[in-house]
Specification:
The structure is a single chain. The protein has helices at about 15-30, 50-65, 65-75, 85-120, 125-135, 145-170, 175-205, 210-220, 230-245, 250-260, 270-280. The chain has one domain: Orthogonal Bundle (Ribonucleotide Reductase, subunit A), CATH 1.10.620.20. About 65% of the residues lie in helices and about 0% in strands. About 35% of the residues are buried. The protein is globular, with a radius of gyration of 20 Å. It has about 280 residues and is an all-alpha fold.
């Protein structure tokens, strides 16, 4: 498909703040600390080889946070004297959430790294940190430059991550890992909710004109690090098959969001959006 999409005007600052403010507050209200987990009660004998493999996999994913944050701040810059004031104002509001999000994702990475060490999945802290750094030095980028593309991608990705943690949790018997997965899944659900509100804001503002941006993301979506993490394809397929997980299930969340928009009274000219829903339902 033609990926040349017209620039979008930003959402109004008040709409963004109405979405971001509650997300930041809920993050504070549901905050948890790595130290609060019952590390002394960790029972590594209750871990399966699948558990150990999955913990290693998601540690790599979560630990790549500097790359993700760099991409967000590049896509939504808040520095530079030549910035358009309306765009800067919107980006400044997004920045408030990005800082909360980064703190929570860093907490995931720190907790998973500690879990590997306490559970004996990794034997040496230095070796583990170097192993993570070897993947962390690989650049992260996404082929999206417009806000609605970026938010649609993150909506799907956060929902897919939440679903993965929930599926992983269903088969885990080790109590500390169970608690950690619950906490991380809750965080991801909150991130998903924020990005859903931002996508909904663009649907309200642009109507059917938003469809090409959503379609482009669906057509090109890949999970983070799919192209860079060593052994990603084999590793992810193995975990997906064993856990009964399929990241395309997350597309359903986007389809429901678009359906809610189309079903509102008075919507007209929404054929493109309706076609998007149909295409989501037919994804492999």
């Amino acid at each position: 498909m033609d990926r040349v999409l017209a620039p979008q005007k930003p959402l109004s600052p008040s709409v963004i703040r109405a979405a971001v403010g509650p997300a930041v507050r809920r993050g504070a209200e549901h905050s948890w600390q790595v130290e609060s987990l019952d590390w002394a009660g960790l029972d590594a004998d209750r871990l399966t080889e699948l558990d150990r493999s999955a913990v290693r996999f998601v540690t790599f994913i979560e630990d790549h946070l500097p790359g993700y944050l760099d991409w967000l701040l590049t896509t939504f810059p808040v520095t530079g004297a030549d910035r358009d004031v309306a765009v800067f104002c919107a980006n400044r509001e997004y920045f408030r959430f990005f800082m909360t999000w980064a703190h929570e994702e860093e907490r995931h990475a720190s907790a998973l790294t500690r879990y590997q060490l306490v559970a004996g999945i990794a034997e040496s802290e230095d070796d583990l940190l170097v192993e993570l750094a070897q993947e962390g030095t690989k650049p992260f980028s996404l082929p999206y430059e417009h806000p609605l593309q970026a938010f649609t991608y993150t909506l799907i990705q956060e929902k897919a991550t939440q679903l993965f943690y929930q599926r992983f949790l269903a088969g885990v018997n080790e109590p500390v890992l169970r608690e950690l997965l619950k906490l991380m899944a809750r965080d991801e659900a909150r991130h998903f909710a924020l990005y859903s509100k931002l996508v909904a804001g663009y649907l309200e503002m642009d109507g059917p004109a938003a469809a090409p941006y959503l379609k482009d993301v669906v057509a090109t979506f890949r999970m983070p690090l799919a192209a860079t993490l060593t052994g990603y394809r084999r590793w992810s397929f193995q975990l997906a098959d064993t856990l009964g997980y399929d990241h395309t299930e997350a597309y359903g969340a986007l389809a429901r969001l678009v359906s809610d928009f189309v079903d509102k009274p008075g919507r007209t000219g929404s054929d493109d959006v309706l076609q998007l829903i149909d295409s989501l339902g037919r994804l492999p």
